[in-house]
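Hi all, long-time lurker, first post. I run a small reading group and we've been trying to get comfortable going from sequence to structure in the token notation. Rather than ask abstract questions, I figured I'd post a concrete chain and ask someone more experienced to write out its structure so we can walk through it together at our next meeting. Sequence below, copied exactly:
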Amino acid sequence: MSVSPSPTQKRAPLNPLKVLLPYMWPVKKNRLRFLFALSCFLLVGARLANLYPPLLFKEIVDNLSIKSQGEALLVTSFFMILGYTFTRFLSQLTSGLKDATFSPVTQNAMHRIALEVFCKLHRLGLRFHLDRKMGGTGRALERGIKGIETFMRFTIFMLAPSFVEITAACALLWHLYGFTMAAIAVVTLSLYITFTVLYSQWRLKVVRKLAEIDSGAGGHVVESLLQYESVKYFGNEAAEAKRYDTWLSRYEKTAIHTQWTLSVLDIVQGLIIAVGLSAALILTARQMSLHTITVGDFVLVNTLLLQLFVPLWSLGFAYREVKLALINMDEMFDLMNEAEEIQDAPDAHDLPRGTRGLAFEDVCFSYHSERPILKNLTFTVEPGQTVAIVGPSGAGKSTLLKLLLRFYDVCGGRILVGGHDVRALTQASLRAAVGVVPQDTVLFNESIFFNIAYAREGATREEVEEAARGANIHERIMSFPQGYDALVGERGLKLSGGEKQRIAIARALLKKPDIYFFDEATSSLDSHTEKEIQKNLDMLASITTTIIVAHRLSTVVGAHKILVLDAGQIVEEGTHASLLEHKGLYASLWQKQQHEKKVEETLA
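-- Answer (accepted) --
Happy to help. Here is the structure in token form:
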């Protein structure tokens, strides 16, 4: 039985080619496979064609160096020059065609991987998202996708073809000028590549540290801006700037160190190339002095070696970029390999629509083993029944929703919806059956229409307006200059708390689920608006199953059953009247709230 790796376990090192090949060579897309093969052919052809211009240039130089230039030699030189420039152009042409043909392959691979990671993030459990900073996760995805593009560009278009060209050039030097000349080129190239790889490997920890600090700084910016109101409430602009300055100072120090190590790399690389080129040219000059080669040969050796060393210069840069890309890709693929805490069972089935009853049977749950939240909780909600859950803060009321929707799985016992264990249902069908008005309403930075219609894809304007009327928000929306097209701002900050809550209620009404779950649904509303909406909610509760989590007890007096939750256990159960007669915790909370209400009315 295989065990999914936990987030703390180290997985095997990333094999980028193995991971990326299925995306670059998609099984069902023959066009992309053809373009990939064509671009590889053009790539190799372009690199091999690069060796021909230096040979032509040698012949041109030898022709032009003949003292007695005749008309025939001039004509020959003229055609050689045309051939030389044409082969240069041909190399550029094949390179351009290669880029054009490979672009659809690259973009499609990036598209598919980005979508796959995005969907994976939505499949990961709530615990994962609460434990991580979303700014850092977003940056990891962004850098990972760019890393894929960098890896493919440098590995497929630079490193691999450079080795093909280097091998062919060394063979050509051996053939034309003997073993010693080829050996000088091979030794120079080997020293350069060995030093670059070993030194860059050592630099890897510096580059990785820089990437981690960059993620931390980016995550802090996102988090601080998301908490804009909190920053302003407590006047902590200076404190936030100080925290960000700490990140920037770390980044500055690490970036300077990184640049110093890069400068050392460039200097040593330049020294190796200078020594190798000097040795080759000295050997060529000696052969010229012995009249065994011509001036054109001297030019050929110099041109050919420089032509090799130019991509070699970029080889060091390419290697560094590839290593950095691998770091970024590794971070992104860590997200893809993250274990999914909540998954559909292999034999999971859809919840039949119209299912309205639910039950909690001996449910135990804790976020951490040392702090239990729910303890052997048992209660039943009959179809069409309205059940209110009340109790002091921290009693575990909102946790019930997270368990019902399987954001977490119970530690013990089970939750049934229509007689089906929620763990035996598909998550999609379970969540489609439940309409939620959360305590903290967070909206998309889109139009009001988008935010209400988000509950049901394809909802018409009339349906959205009907839901808004049910939430007593339609008239307010129409008073805005742009009406339903008005943007709500980041997290809905352009709207008041009551307006956001009414939009959340409208969204739940539009969904038309089988079960409604209202988590402090009217806590941000004034008393008049609350009464208007309460009428609609009462009418809704009369025809469907409704669970109401409430702090204000006045909103639940009409419930069929009230459950009083304290320290994760039901301590009282009954109707409003029976609980008052019992004179327990509910009666105490009721009396306290009534007293607070009288004090507020007196002060008003």
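A couple of things your group might point at:
The radius of gyration is 36 Å.
The CA atoms of residues 171 and 246 lie 55 Å apart.
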